[in-house]
Amino acid sequence: MTDPTDELSARLLPAYRNEEFLDTPDARPLRILSEYLYPLSHLRKEKISDTIVFFGSARTFEASASGRYYTEARQLANRITEWSVNLDERNRFVVCTGGGPGIMEAANRGAAEAGGKTIGLNIGLPMEQRPNPFITPALNFEFHYFFMRKFWFAYMAKALVVFPGGFGTLDELMEVLTLTQTEKLVKKMVVVLYGTTFWKEILNFDALVRHGMIDQRDLNLFQFADDVETAFQILKDGLTKYYLTPLPETPDIAKSRI
Q1: Nearest CA-CA partner of 61 in 49, 74, 52
Q2: What CATH class does 48-245 carry?
């Protein structure tokens, strides 16, 4: 005959192992915290302290009308990774994307082909978003909360390359520009908008200045590029100036305010 006490003990679990509890609203802070601590643990283990983030449309494929952007994102990620893996400091400026298809896949692919580690910060969505096969397995993360995913984009990044994209790309770009403009990011951020014609049609930055919504100097927060070589030189020059040339005032990643 089974002892009822034994049955009760079998049903009782520590709270951190109780999946039914972890899925409740009361456990939301634990879920949020786990999306901070889990990537932190893996990034430390892989000795990664900074990234170059690529944003862009999940709908841009090699064979699509905008396929040149896929090809050029792949080439740019390859060039910058080849440069970074040959630095004296290992695991610097690792290519990081949202982990999905399109431009994200292209950047992860180019970095992997150059022999570098590459990060994917994936998020579960109803359409489009599935992890691409070019992400380094130990650096393939799945998020539930958009804001925690954005935190990891901004916290590690020393540079940002933004290819043409839709709502998600615009949201991510504006998040970083706002954090930089308001100095919530104390570090220097190199921001490249790839595809001048696209970006100047979609976002009228000059009109924002003219209407007094932003300052003229805010236009210095980013640069435009239309080819791989130009974008590569902007990234290389900026990263060398801010992070590879000894500067006493260069902020450490741990001092970021976000």
Answers
A1: 74
A2: alpha beta
Which pLDDT tens digit goes with each residue over 36-92? 999 999 999 999 999 999 999 999 988 787 889 999 999 999 999 999 999 987 789
pLDDT in tens, 187-242: 999 999 999 999 999 999 999 999 999 999 999 999 999 999 999 999 999 999 99
Determine the Cα–Cα distance for residues 199 and 192; give it in Å rounded to an integer: 11
Domain ranges of the chain: 48-245
| 87 in Cβ contact with 107 (< 8 Å) | no
Contacts of 91 (CB under 8 A, 6+ apart): 46, 47, 48, 49, 117
pLDDT reading at 9 higher than 60: no
Q: Which residue has the tokens 């690792």?
A: 94
- The strand pair at 118-123 and 223-225 is best described as unpaired
pTM of the model: 0.88
Query: Of 102, 115, 121, whose CA–CA distance to 43 is shortest?
Result: 121
CA distance 118 to 66: 24
Quickly list H helices, the chain.
4-11, 19-22, 28-45, 67-85, 103-113, 146-156, 167-181, 196-202, 205-210, 228-239
Q: How far is residue 103's CA from residue 128's CA, in Å, rounded to a whole number? A: 12
In whole angstroms, how far apart are CA 36 and each of 97, 110, 149, 168?
17, 27, 9, 21
Give which of 247, 238, 250 is closest to 80, Cα–Cα.
238
